[in-house]
């Protein structure tokens, strides 16, 4: 699960940018910030690539070593928030989900991510829990936001994906994007 936190955040960005649907408008998505958070090196070691192919398309690959077994004592938290384009606009929370890891695997991961991840990685099956120490690889994954462009609304979007234990962040990512109409 932790191996795909950055990949899952990008998928959430594409799926959840449908707030205030704007018909017949095309948008550009600009990645402003992609930051890992948590105890570096204690839970995962990462080596990944992330390349922008075009304004709406990104190529990703990576190798992640999960260093600890993860069970239901860990929680997965996903937060999506949106703000207007003005720099001082406050973020409004659009989605805030927190579930024990095994429940996350059987529900959110199974429903929204497993089928696509299965094609490009050796990420675990959704029935795998606890997650044993393992090495995960993602190869040649391309995320294309273009199919979602007609559903997007302009604004600043913040996506946070966190793995926590006892309220402390073990590993996670914060991604901020700007969605603007194509010029």
From TrEMBL:
Protein name: Uncharacterized protein
Matching InterPro entries: DUF1091
Superkingdom classification of source: Eukaryota
Pfam families associated with the record: DUF1091
Alphabetic keyword roster: Signal
Species of provenance: Anopheles dirus
Signal peptide location: 1-23
């Amino acid at each position: 699960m932790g191996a795909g936190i950055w990949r899952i955040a990008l998928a959430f960005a594409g799926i959840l940018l449908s707030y205030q649907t704007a018909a017949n408008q095309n948008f550009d998505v600009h990645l402003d910030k992609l930051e890992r958070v948590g105890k570096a090196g204690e839970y995962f070691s990462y080596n990944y690539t992330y390349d922008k192919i075009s304004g709406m398309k990104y190529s990703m690959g990576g190798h992640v070593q999960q260093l600890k077994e993860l069970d239901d004592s860990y929680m997965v938290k996903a937060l999506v928030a949106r703000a207007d384009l003005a720099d001082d606009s406050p973020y409004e929370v659009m989605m805030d989900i927190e579930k024990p890891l095994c429940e996350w695997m059987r529900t959110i991961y199974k429903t929204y991510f497993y089928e696509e991840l299965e094609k490009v990685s050796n990420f675990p099956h959704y029935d795998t829990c606890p997650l044993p120490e393992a090495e995960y690889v993602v190869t040649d994954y391309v995320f294309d936001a273009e199919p979602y462009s007609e559903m997007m609304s302009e604004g600043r979007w913040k996506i946070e994906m966190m793995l926590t234990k006892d309220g402390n962040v073990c590993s996670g990512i914060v991604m901020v994007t700007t969605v603007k109409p194509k010029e």
